[in-house]
Amino acid sequence: MAFYQGCTITIEVPEAFDNALLSNALINKLPGIAIEVKRNSQLLRPKIIDAFVPGTHGLVHDEAQKDYGNDEWHSRGTQTLFMIAEDVLEQYKRTHTPQ
């Protein structure tokens, strides 16, 4: 079973964008991830718009204090997943920018 099984990344892409290469890059970096694609005719470049980590996933246990002034903790799993996906997207943009 792939580590990111059950997690979801939502990407928004321009209307005529072929998202196969970007999806493959995300899947290679995040094995098992589900990718939802939304088309937007106003968009010029793809972007990550959402990330979801189920409450039973191992990423949920990556916790940080919500506010340094109190003892409340929250999961950074979704934030971590979003940041990884953003990194993949930035690498994709650098290697697939039209000249």
Q: What is the gyration radius calculated from CA atoms?
A: 15 Å
Q: Termini separation (Å)?
A: 39 Å
- Could you tell me the mean pLDDT? 82
Number of strand elements: 5
Helix content: 25-40%
Unreliable segments (pLDDT under 50, ≥5 consecutive)? none
| Main sheet properties | 3 strands, mixed
Q: How are strands sequenced across the largest beta sheet?
A: 2-1-3
Gross geometry = globular
How much beta, percentage-wise? 25-35%
Helix and strand content put the structural class at alpha+beta
User: How do the helices and strands follow one another from N- to C-terminus?
Assistant: EHEEEEH
- Tally of separate helices: 2
Summary of the model, kept short:
This protein has 99 residues and is of the alpha+beta class. Helix content is 29%, strand content 26%.
Descriptive overview:
The chain has 99 residues and is α+β, with helices and mostly antiparallel strands. 29% of the residues lie in helices and 26% in strands. It is built from 2 helices and 5 strands. The protein has helices spanning 20-29, 77-95, and strands spanning 8-14, 34-40, 47-52, 63-65, 73-75. The strands form 2 sheets. Strands 2-1-3 form a 3-stranded mixed beta sheet. Strand 4 and strand 5 (73-75) form a beta hairpin. Helix 1 crosses helix 2. The longest helix is centred in the C-terminal third of the chain and has 19 residues, at 77-95. The protein is globular, with a radius of gyration of 15 Å. The model has no long low-confidence stretch (mean pLDDT 82).
